[in-house]
Amino acid sequence: MTTRPLIAITAVHDNGNTFLQKDYSEAVRAAGGVPFVVPHTAEPELLDTLCERVDGLLLSGGEDIDPNLYGEEPLPGIGAVTPERDRMEARLAQRFMAADKPVFAICRGLQLLNAVAGGTLYQDIERQCPDRLQHRQIAPRSHPTHRVDIEPGSLLERVAGSARIRVNSFHHQAVKQTAPGFRVNAVASDGTVEGIESVTHRFVLAVQWHPENMAATDEPARRLFAAFVEACRTR
Question: Which domain holds residue 81?
Fold first, then answer.
Protein backbone atom coordinates (compact mmCIF):
# COMPACT_ATOMS: atom_id res chain seq x y z
CA MET A 1 0.00 0.00 0.00
CA THR A 2 1.37 3.43 -1.00
CA THR A 3 1.88 5.81 1.90
CA ARG A 4 -0.16 8.98 1.68
CA PRO A 5 2.00 11.97 2.75
CA LEU A 6 0.79 14.36 5.42
CA ILE A 7 0.45 17.91 4.10
CA ALA A 8 0.28 20.93 6.42
CA ILE A 9 -1.98 23.68 5.03
CA THR A 10 -1.95 27.18 6.49
CA ALA A 11 -5.28 28.92 7.01
CA VAL A 12 -6.99 32.24 7.69
CA HIS A 13 -7.25 33.21 11.37
CA ASP A 14 -9.97 35.70 12.28
CA ASN A 15 -11.72 36.57 15.54
CA GLY A 16 -10.53 33.41 17.22
CA ASN A 17 -11.51 31.16 14.32
CA THR A 18 -9.35 29.19 11.90
CA PHE A 19 -10.87 28.46 8.50
CA LEU A 20 -9.81 27.20 5.11
CA GLN A 21 -11.59 26.99 1.77
CA LYS A 22 -12.51 23.38 1.11
CA ASP A 23 -10.88 23.41 -2.35
CA TYR A 24 -7.38 23.38 -0.81
CA SER A 25 -7.87 20.23 1.22
CA GLU A 26 -9.90 18.57 -1.53
CA ALA A 27 -7.17 19.18 -4.12
CA VAL A 28 -4.55 17.69 -1.77
CA ARG A 29 -6.80 14.70 -0.98
CA ALA A 30 -7.54 14.07 -4.67
CA ALA A 31 -3.80 14.13 -5.43
CA GLY A 32 -3.15 11.43 -2.83
CA GLY A 33 -2.17 13.48 0.20
CA VAL A 34 -3.60 13.75 3.70
CA PRO A 35 -4.48 17.42 4.38
CA PHE A 36 -3.81 18.85 7.83
CA VAL A 37 -4.93 22.40 8.67
CA VAL A 38 -2.28 24.21 10.73
CA PRO A 39 -3.69 25.68 13.96
CA HIS A 40 -2.91 29.27 14.82
CA THR A 41 0.04 29.33 17.22
CA ALA A 42 2.99 31.50 18.17
CA GLU A 43 4.90 28.64 19.83
CA PRO A 44 8.18 28.12 17.95
CA GLU A 45 8.64 24.63 19.39
CA LEU A 46 5.21 23.53 18.21
CA LEU A 47 5.92 24.83 14.70
CA ASP A 48 9.32 23.13 14.65
CA THR A 49 7.74 19.85 15.75
CA LEU A 50 5.13 20.18 13.04
CA CYS A 51 7.87 20.60 10.45
CA GLU A 52 9.58 17.45 11.71
CA ARG A 53 6.45 15.32 11.54
CA VAL A 54 4.71 16.34 8.31
CA ASP A 55 5.91 15.77 4.76
CA GLY A 56 5.13 19.07 3.03
CA LEU A 57 3.80 22.61 3.45
CA LEU A 58 1.06 24.34 1.47
CA LEU A 59 0.97 28.12 2.02
CA SER A 60 -2.57 29.20 1.22
CA GLY A 61 -4.12 32.50 0.13
CA GLY A 62 -5.57 35.24 2.29
CA GLU A 63 -4.79 38.73 3.54
CA ASP A 64 -2.06 41.13 2.42
CA ILE A 65 1.53 40.78 3.57
CA ASP A 66 2.72 43.32 6.15
CA PRO A 67 5.20 45.56 4.25
CA ASN A 68 7.41 45.69 7.35
CA LEU A 69 8.31 42.11 6.48
CA TYR A 70 10.17 43.34 3.41
CA GLY A 71 11.40 46.68 4.74
CA GLU A 72 8.77 49.07 3.38
CA GLU A 73 6.27 51.52 4.86
CA PRO A 74 2.57 50.96 4.10
CA LEU A 75 1.29 52.71 0.97
CA PRO A 76 -2.23 53.74 -0.06
CA GLY A 77 -4.10 50.75 -1.43
CA ILE A 78 -2.73 48.10 0.91
CA GLY A 79 -5.45 45.97 2.50
CA ALA A 80 -5.80 44.23 5.84
CA VAL A 81 -2.63 42.62 7.17
CA THR A 82 -2.20 39.88 9.76
CA PRO A 83 1.30 40.18 11.28
CA GLU A 84 0.85 37.16 13.56
CA ARG A 85 0.00 34.96 10.59
CA ASP A 86 2.97 36.41 8.70
CA ARG A 87 5.33 35.51 11.54
CA MET A 88 3.94 32.00 11.94
CA GLU A 89 4.10 31.24 8.21
CA ALA A 90 7.54 32.81 7.90
CA ARG A 91 8.89 30.40 10.52
CA LEU A 92 7.20 27.45 8.84
CA ALA A 93 8.55 28.39 5.41
CA GLN A 94 12.06 28.86 6.76
CA ARG A 95 12.01 25.55 8.65
CA PHE A 96 10.63 23.55 5.73
CA MET A 97 13.16 25.02 3.31
CA ALA A 98 16.00 24.42 5.76
CA ALA A 99 14.90 20.76 5.92
CA ASP A 100 14.51 20.69 2.12
CA LYS A 101 10.91 19.54 2.46
CA PRO A 102 8.49 20.44 -0.35
CA VAL A 103 6.71 23.79 -0.21
CA PHE A 104 3.85 24.77 -2.52
CA ALA A 105 2.69 28.39 -2.17
CA ILE A 106 -0.50 29.89 -3.60
CA CYS A 107 -1.32 33.61 -4.09
CA ARG A 108 -0.65 35.18 -0.66
CA GLY A 109 1.61 32.18 -0.07
CA LEU A 110 3.82 33.22 -3.00
CA GLN A 111 4.04 36.76 -1.69
CA LEU A 112 4.88 35.56 1.83
CA LEU A 113 7.52 33.19 0.52
CA ASN A 114 9.14 35.88 -1.63
CA ALA A 115 9.20 38.38 1.25
CA VAL A 116 10.59 35.85 3.75
CA ALA A 117 13.37 34.90 1.34
CA GLY A 118 14.44 38.54 0.84
CA GLY A 119 12.30 39.83 -2.02
CA THR A 120 9.84 42.73 -2.19
CA LEU A 121 6.25 43.25 -3.32
CA TYR A 122 4.06 45.76 -5.06
CA GLN A 123 1.64 46.63 -2.27
CA ASP A 124 -1.15 47.46 -4.72
CA ILE A 125 -0.54 46.87 -8.43
CA GLU A 126 -3.66 48.82 -9.37
CA ARG A 127 -2.04 52.00 -8.00
CA GLN A 128 1.63 51.27 -8.55
CA CYS A 129 1.23 49.66 -11.99
CA PRO A 130 -2.00 51.14 -13.41
CA ASP A 131 -1.47 49.71 -16.90
CA ARG A 132 -1.83 46.10 -15.72
CA LEU A 133 -4.57 43.60 -16.54
CA GLN A 134 -7.53 42.91 -14.28
CA HIS A 135 -6.02 40.68 -11.61
CA ARG A 136 -9.07 40.60 -9.34
CA GLN A 137 -11.54 38.83 -11.56
CA ILE A 138 -15.31 39.00 -11.11
CA ALA A 139 -15.80 35.72 -12.98
CA PRO A 140 -16.36 32.46 -11.03
CA ARG A 141 -13.32 31.24 -9.09
CA SER A 142 -12.94 28.15 -11.27
CA HIS A 143 -12.86 30.17 -14.50
CA PRO A 144 -9.45 30.96 -16.08
CA THR A 145 -9.44 34.60 -17.22
CA HIS A 146 -5.95 35.44 -18.48
CA ARG A 147 -2.93 33.68 -19.91
CA VAL A 148 0.38 32.96 -18.25
CA ASP A 149 3.62 32.32 -20.13
CA ILE A 150 5.87 29.80 -18.39
CA GLU A 151 9.66 29.92 -18.49
CA PRO A 152 11.14 27.12 -20.62
CA GLY A 153 13.09 24.55 -18.61
CA SER A 154 11.57 25.59 -15.28
CA LEU A 155 10.15 23.22 -12.71
CA LEU A 156 6.77 24.84 -13.35
CA GLU A 157 6.93 24.02 -17.05
CA ARG A 158 7.77 20.39 -16.31
CA VAL A 159 4.94 20.15 -13.81
CA ALA A 160 2.28 22.02 -15.78
CA GLY A 161 3.20 20.25 -19.02
CA SER A 162 2.85 23.41 -21.11
CA ALA A 163 4.62 26.70 -21.86
CA ARG A 164 1.36 28.69 -21.83
CA ILE A 165 -1.73 28.18 -19.71
CA ARG A 166 -4.78 30.16 -18.66
CA VAL A 167 -5.38 30.91 -14.99
CA ASN A 168 -7.81 32.52 -12.58
CA SER A 169 -6.77 35.68 -10.72
CA PHE A 170 -7.68 37.11 -7.30
CA HIS A 171 -4.85 39.37 -6.12
CA HIS A 172 -3.77 43.00 -5.97
CA GLN A 173 -0.24 42.47 -4.63
CA ALA A 174 2.58 40.95 -6.68
CA VAL A 175 6.32 40.29 -6.72
CA LYS A 176 8.42 43.41 -7.34
CA GLN A 177 11.95 42.19 -6.65
CA THR A 178 12.46 38.43 -6.74
CA ALA A 179 14.13 36.98 -3.65
CA PRO A 180 17.73 35.74 -3.90
CA GLY A 181 17.81 32.02 -4.62
CA PHE A 182 14.56 32.18 -6.56
CA ARG A 183 13.74 32.58 -10.23
CA VAL A 184 10.65 33.89 -11.98
CA ASN A 185 9.01 30.97 -13.77
CA ALA A 186 5.85 32.58 -15.14
CA VAL A 187 4.52 36.00 -16.16
CA ALA A 188 1.21 37.40 -17.36
CA SER A 189 1.03 39.26 -20.67
CA ASP A 190 1.32 42.58 -18.77
CA GLY A 191 4.59 41.52 -17.13
CA THR A 192 3.14 40.69 -13.72
CA VAL A 193 5.07 37.88 -12.04
CA GLU A 194 2.78 34.84 -11.83
CA GLY A 195 5.18 32.29 -10.40
CA ILE A 196 8.54 31.79 -8.71
CA GLU A 197 10.57 28.75 -7.73
CA SER A 198 13.69 28.02 -5.72
CA VAL A 199 16.88 27.28 -7.62
CA THR A 200 18.45 25.44 -4.67
CA HIS A 201 15.67 23.23 -3.26
CA ARG A 202 14.22 20.13 -4.84
CA PHE A 203 10.61 21.39 -4.70
CA VAL A 204 9.77 24.93 -3.59
CA LEU A 205 7.20 26.22 -6.06
CA ALA A 206 4.84 29.21 -5.88
CA VAL A 207 2.07 30.47 -8.15
CA GLN A 208 0.08 33.69 -8.03
CA TRP A 209 -3.21 32.17 -9.17
CA HIS A 210 -5.52 29.71 -7.36
CA PRO A 211 -5.14 26.21 -8.84
CA GLU A 212 -7.11 24.70 -5.96
CA ASN A 213 -10.26 26.30 -7.42
CA MET A 214 -9.53 24.81 -10.85
CA ALA A 215 -8.10 21.39 -10.00
CA ALA A 216 -11.39 19.54 -10.46
CA THR A 217 -11.62 20.53 -14.14
CA ASP A 218 -8.22 21.91 -15.25
CA GLU A 219 -5.35 19.58 -16.14
CA PRO A 220 -2.40 21.94 -15.37
CA ALA A 221 -3.94 22.75 -11.98
CA ARG A 222 -4.40 19.07 -11.22
CA ARG A 223 -0.79 18.39 -12.25
CA LEU A 224 0.48 21.03 -9.80
CA PHE A 225 -1.08 19.26 -6.84
CA ALA A 226 -0.09 15.82 -8.12
CA ALA A 227 3.56 16.89 -8.44
CA PHE A 228 3.56 18.52 -5.01
CA VAL A 229 2.10 15.47 -3.29
CA GLU A 230 4.50 13.17 -5.12
CA ALA A 231 7.44 15.34 -4.00
CA CYS A 232 6.14 15.05 -0.42
CA ARG A 233 6.00 11.28 -0.77
CA THR A 234 9.55 11.06 -2.11
CA ARG A 235 12.43 11.56 0.34
Answer: 6-233
